[in-house]
Amino acid sequence: MPGNYRPVFVLICKSFLLSLEDKLKTKFVMRKLLLVLLFSPLLSFAQEYSEVVEVPGKSVDQLYSSAREWFALTFKSATDVLKMDDPIAGKLIGKGSSHISESYVTDGLIKVPIKLDWYPSYTISIAIKDGRYKCIIAEITIKRIVEGSGIAPIETSFKEFFDQKDNFKNGRDPEWFTKNVEGAGKLSKNMIKNSAKAYESYYNIILKTEQEFTSLLASLQKKMKGTDDNW
Fold first, then answer.
1. pLDDT tens for each residue of 152-207
2. 143 near 121, Cβ under 8 Å?
3. pTM here?
4. Is the distance from CB of 151 to CB of 136 less than 8 angstroms?
């Protein structure tokens, strides 16, 4: 059985250790494995979103002005967000952040509302030349808070979750979860259902995060390609 299911299982299922159905031995093992996961070295910031866009007929100055305006319109304070603002080099670098959430309620004797709060932080850089620009969204980290679970907040790379995207997608099916996740065969039906709900929550929030970054790229492209407002 592929070993990469164990970290996902450990990460998700600690919230269900509060259930009356849990056994003390299972609780001890899960907590021990969770500590191994949380304090292991983080993966590199390899996940990024980028594009090179041709904008014929527009100069560096025009594109730079549009990019600068886009930062001001997209983020609350362009002054706080921008860490590099160099019109001579035609380069802007900013630090962005946002908040995304998913919620569900567990099955079983105790109905526990679980809310997954997800705070992406990232670097967005724009390099500009005559008639084109390149935008890169990289160094993406996630601060994760799971309300109602007893899981301590962590901050790690988005790639650590993104690499498990297919597992989260498949794990939404309780039957798949039972057959493929190590130790799932020993869980009660309710815990399997709750684990599938948790997998779905993580899968959905990964999709929302990807959509946020593709939307940023699309809105920048619209701004850069827009016509100048001539009075």
1. 888 999 999 999 899 899 989 988 888 888 887 888 888 888 888 989 999 999 99
2. yes
3. 0.77
4. no
